[in-house]
Amino acid sequence: MKRVLLTISYDGTDYHGWQVQNNAVTVQEKLQDALQELMGFRPDVTGCSRTDAGVHARGFCCHLDCPESFPEKAFLLGLNSILPQDIAVREFHEVRPDFHARYDACGKNYQYHFYVSKTHDPFLSRYALRLEHPLDAERVGAFCDSLLGTHDFKGFCASGSSVEDTVRTMSECRLTLNGEQPMISVSANGFLYNMVRIIVGTAIDVSEGRLPTDCATEIFSSCRREAAGFTAPPNGLILNQVFYKEAF
Amino acid sequence: MKRVLLTISYDGTDYHGWQVQNNAVTVQEKLQDALQELMGFRPDVTGCSRTDAGVHARGFCCHLDCPESFPEKAFLLGLNSILPQDIAVREFHEVRPDFHARYDACGKNYQYHFYVSKTHDPFLSRYALRLEHPLDAERVGAFCDSLLGTHDFKGFCASGSSVEDTVRTMSECRLTLNGEQPMISVSANGFLYNMVRIIVGTAIDVSEGRLPTDCATEIFSSCRREAAGFTAPPNGLILNQVFYKEAF
After folding, report:
1. Contact at 8 Å (CB) between A102 and A19?
2. Closest CA in chain A for residue B238
């Protein structure tokens, strides 16, 4: 057997996230179905993280073990011809036998997309959150800057999470205006449950004046979820890239 | 009562086209459902044309009669808050009492979108047809040019259509390369059943050398559907704009 790393893209609209669940269709299950059809057995597939229901991915990574004889083309072409149109395998890399898609990830980049419009747009609403008014670039920029560096992000974590170490290092948090379709890009060495969606909800609250631009100070020091803003909906969020030390 | 013209956008993926049908969900039905909820009665709604199952629209037009007292805001905001995310009302215009969305249309513009990729892309496949190889701009350009002007387009019409006059005047037929996401834009004073999709399928056959660049000569003169290329799938097609003599 050899270990392989797959980079996949998916439109998460119709899935209950990555992780296999009872009574709900997930991306992991669809991928395992396709791998079973391709390889004749059902492999374990280990993802780089969970994603919430409705969240999208451009560069989600997962690893699995497959027979030595399986060539790259069988994965890319074979798997893509079996997978539904809303999931695609983009890259395939053979990795060392102890490589782990989750534990070896040293960071991730998420993007949150918006569009500014008085009414919803059927061609944008699937992948972006509609805003009635443009974001206040100055206020949101100041809030984003205040998140950079190493902090205890517990206040930006959904309650009910069992993670003990809630300190993370944020290397990027940036609003790109891009006309009527702004985007917030966030990179960190790790993310807590709902962390990007709470950061984005807080950014919207800051933009609209419901929270001050320096609200992160209070959220970091108090670690209280209630000090942060609302949880932005999943449809605007995309897991854009996973960082590993190895170059593939 | 006053007559109003609505311009709507829709993602046609999950609909069996515009026109109400038994046992299939259509855009017209969803719009009538929403109007009924808004106005308290179920109005007749007359579309500018039918669209096939899976075809999208950015500027579909339809007319209906509504009480004099109904303000524009009630339509735009009220209707959009009721409609599903894949249908939106973009514009509202009061028109003369005998205005007719279909009979008064003097032309339409359709766009057919492609993307060039070895594997499918979950974020593009909903609204564009995947091509393995780029289109041959010179060959497709020559074919597109040969369609301009007034011709009998019967050979570009799906069999089974009962339309008697199959002569149409094409004012635009143009390939835009746009990097990896090319597009064919077609404008005419009217379109036959499946006409754009057959033109696009023929363009692909011309691009890949299965048909000569001057094949339209034979298709026009023989009026035989078999002389033209395949019918391109609906997902790449979008009804972009309907032209009326009146300016709104």
Report:
1. no
2. A123
Distances (CA, A) of A242 to A137, A186, B119: 27, 12, 21
Query: Which tens digits make up the pLDDT trace of B114-168?
Result: 999 988 999 999 999 999 999 999 999 999 999 999 999 999 999 877 888 999 9
Contacts of B85 in chain A (CB under 8 A): 120, 122, 125-126
Q: What is the pLDDT of residues B16-40, one digit of tens each?
A: 999 998 889 999 999 999 999 998 9
- If DSSP codes are grouped into helix, strand and coil, which group holds residue B52? coil
User: Tell me, what's the pLDDT at B74?
Assistant: 78
CB contact under 8 A, B76 and A125: no
B183 φ, ψ to 5°?
-150, 140
pLDDT, tens digit, for every residue of B50-79? 889 999 999 999 999 998 888 877 778 899
Whether A203 contacts A184, CB under 8 Å: yes
SS3 of B26, please? coil
Is residue B98 among the annotated active site residues? no
Contact state of B121 with A88 under an 8 Å Cβ cutoff = yes
**Residue B248, pLDDT above cutoff 80:** no
Phi-psi region of A219 (alpha: psi -120 to 50; beta: other; left: phi over 0): alpha
- The values of phi and psi at residue A150, to 5°, are -100, 120
Reported pTM = 0.90
- Please answer yes or no on whether A122 and B76 come within 8 Å at the CB atom: no
Contact B120 A85 (CB under 8 A): yes
Q: Which residues of A touch B78 (CB under 8 A)?
A: none
Nearest by CB to residue A10, choosing from B87, B118, B122, is B122
The H or E element that residue A168 is part of is: strand A167-176
**pLDDT of A159:** 84
Residue B70 confidence (pLDDT): 82
Q: How many helices (H) and strands (E) does chain B have?
A: 6, 10
Which residues from B are below 8 Å from A10, CB to CB? 122
Average pLDDT, chain B: 94
Nearest to A9 among B77, B85, B122 (CB): B122
Selecting from B9, B86, B119 the residue whose C-beta is nearest the C-beta of A80 gives B119
Write down the catalytic residue from B52, B98, B145, B152: B52
Query: Out of A9, A118, A120, whose CB is closest to B121?
Result: A9
d(CA B11, CA B87): 7
Of A69-73, A239-243, B112-116, the least confident: A69-73
The C-alpha of A11 sits at a distance from chain B's nearest C-alpha, in angstroms, of 6
DSSP run (H or E) holding A239: strand A237-244
